Amino acid sequence: MTDRVERDPLGALPVPSHALYGVQTERARRNFAISGLMPQPAFVEAVVQIKRAAALTHRDTGRLDARLADAIVQAADEILGGAHREHFIVDPYQAGAGTSHNMNVNEVLANRANELLGAERGTYVPVHPNDHVNMAQSTNDVIPTAIRVGALDMLRALTEATEGLIAGLTAKSVAFDDVLKSGRTHLQDAMPIRLGQEFAAWAHALRRDLARVQQAAHWLRDLGIGGSAVGTGVNVEPSYPARLVRHLSEALQLELREGDDRIALMQSMGDVAAFSASLRVLAIDLSKVASDLRLLASGPRTGLDELVLPAVQPGSSIMPGKINPSIPEMVNQVCLQVFGNDTTVSMAAEQGQLELNVMMPVIAHNLFLSLQLLTNAIRALDERCVRGIEANREMCRYWLERSAALATALAPRLGYARAAALSKQSVEEGVLIRELATREQLLPPAELDRVLDLRRMTEIGVPGAEDDARD
Fold it and tell me: What is the mean pLDDT of residues 296-313?
């Protein structure tokens, strides 16, 4: 491997000859050998899309020679098509604001554009990273814009995955609507519920969470591009912001808007923090669903065993035949990571000072990571778990019949104190509530059957009262 020598304001530095990146990226590579992680693909693609839209805008206005603009656009299209990704190398933990990431994109696009025009890498003639690729831009308006459009772009996959999981849970709620089981509060016996109702409740919670995420995304559509260094738009043509937003909207097929106050959009990461928080809420309910699945599938001999989850892999290296709830366990871990990511985003958003938040690289990394993790985990939960879940009807019936909470249905007839004593007696003697009430002749047999109608207990109403009204 040979090197070429490039120069920047700090002096000369060797750069690998094969590299499409240049001297400023190489300095960042040496300075920030921190995590060993590469930038999130969404972060790369969002910045490349902005550079592409900027080149088209400057070609429209005549500020950039059409030949150079077309070369930049072609280079950008190659990257967006999956090429040259190995040349984006700046660690997520880098200097503030994301200057290194921005320059990494500028240099790769400039070098590739020059190659397309017949020039060599590292010459930056006729296309220069700053003068042409970064024309009318600053890291300070490019990176917050990239965070917004990258999140909106990734939201489409998350929405599709979440809607798939909601549909899967809803289908199971219909399939299991006739399965009566014991409800549980405080992990103790509670009144009957239908298994289908539990699945429907999970689906409804996630549907509300997705709506909340989409509401938060509304504010991300306001872009501060064109603010340049401090939001005032120095070195920017007046028509540039609107034109660029239009090109970006067309390329990404997203509803995007020119922001009303570019200074505010540069200073504040509040919209991004709110969006991240909405992802956290989605993760909270998603983790609850995963935990409930694990609990209801516990066993098969010493747990609840009301659900049978698909077996996706052996569960133990020492215990033969053991099958674990592997997919829900993965989902729980993903959600914990999302909680941590959101904490980082919120704390980094608070660190903004005066005209800029320099913590944007870590905000971008954690936000895009949350979107990626949630999308993949939700899809896996739907496809590799929920769709194959079966109800253990026998165990649901077994636990329900033994629930001491069934005495609650007798409280309107017998009073709370007598019903509580009956519940306690049932547990102490190991006798079912129905058998005990029959033995004690607490109600006439026909009335007892009406009151202890388990299906009726899963709907609103006073057990037996509807029949009394008809009689």
Answer: 97
* End position of a domain, from candidates 135, 151, 166: 135
Cite the beta strand spans of 176-249 per DSSP E.
Answer: 180-185, 188-194, 222-223
CATH number of the domain enclosing 435: 1.10.40.30
Query: pLDDT tens, 96-153?
Result: 999 999 999 999 999 999 999 999 999 999 999 999 999 999 999 999 999 999 999 9
Domain span holding position 342: 141-227+259-394
Q: Is the pTM of this model over 0.90?
A: yes
- Residue where a domain stops, chosen among 367, 394, 421: 394
Facing residues of 189 across strands?
184
pLDDT at position 468 over 70? no
Number of compact structural domains in the chain: 3
Which amino acid is present at 201?
Answer: A
Give the residue numbers annotated as catalytic, written as ranges. 316
Say if CB 161 and CB 210 are below 8 A apart: no
Q: Give the C-alpha separation, 83 to 30, whole Å.
A: 24
DSSP E strands, 80-234: 180-185, 188-194, 222-223
Distance CA 235, CA 282 (A): 42
Decide if 253 is inside a domain: no
Rounded Cα gap, residues 414 and 411, in angstroms:
5
Tell me the C-alpha distance between 17 and 351, whole Å: 39
Q: Which two tokens stand for residue 239?
A: 């028509």
Q: What is the dihedral of CA 424, 429, 435, 440, to 10 degrees?
A: -70
What was the pLDDT predicted at 210?
Answer: 98
Q: Please check whether residue 292 is in contact with residue 337, taking contact to mean a CB–CB distance below 8 angstroms.
A: no
In a domain, 240, yes or no: no
User: Are both 190 and 221 inside the same structural domain?
Assistant: yes
The CATH number assigned to the domain holding 126 equals 1.10.275.10
